[in-house]
Write a structure and sequence with these properties.
- The chain has 109 residues and is of the alpha/beta class.
- The chain has a single domain, classed as Response regulator (Rossmann fold, 3-Layer(aba) Sandwich), CATH 3.40.50.2300.
- It is built from four helices and four strands.
Length: 109
């Protein structure tokens, strides 16, 4: 029997969080294990043994997704962190990528 990928979702907009939860749970092989409305809630609630991947919004109130992703990577280095965003400016997107990778150094031009 195939293993189910357990997803933790961090999204402050309730409607988006609920829609993504339905989408994830409706996809064979995936289950939304947890849904949090803030990075602070997620950081106190996530147990690294019950999550296979973390999907986080970048634009969160309080601790933002980029800063939170850095903390998540330190706490759970083996858990992939994926950024979810509506931002299209290069700096926000690049910072999110750097925060979720093992190396956070920006390459020199």
């Amino acid at each position: 029997m195939p293993r189910t990928v357990r997803v933790t979702l961090i999204e402050d907009v309730r409607e988006v969080r609920e829609s993504l939860t339905l989408l994830i749970n409706g996809t064979p092989g995936f289950a939304c294990a947890h849904g949090y409305r803030s990075m602070e809630d997620a950081l106190t609630g996530i147990d690294g043994s019950t999550v296979d991947v973390i999907l986080t919004d970048i634009g969160l109130p309080g601790m933002g997704g980029v800063e939170g992703t850095r903390v998540l990577r330190e706490r759970f280095p083996a858990v992939p962190v994926l950024a979810l965003t509506v931002y299209d400016d290069d700096d926000n997107v690049f910072n999110a990528i750097c925060a979720s990778s093992k190396s956070t150094r920006r390459p020199k031009p």
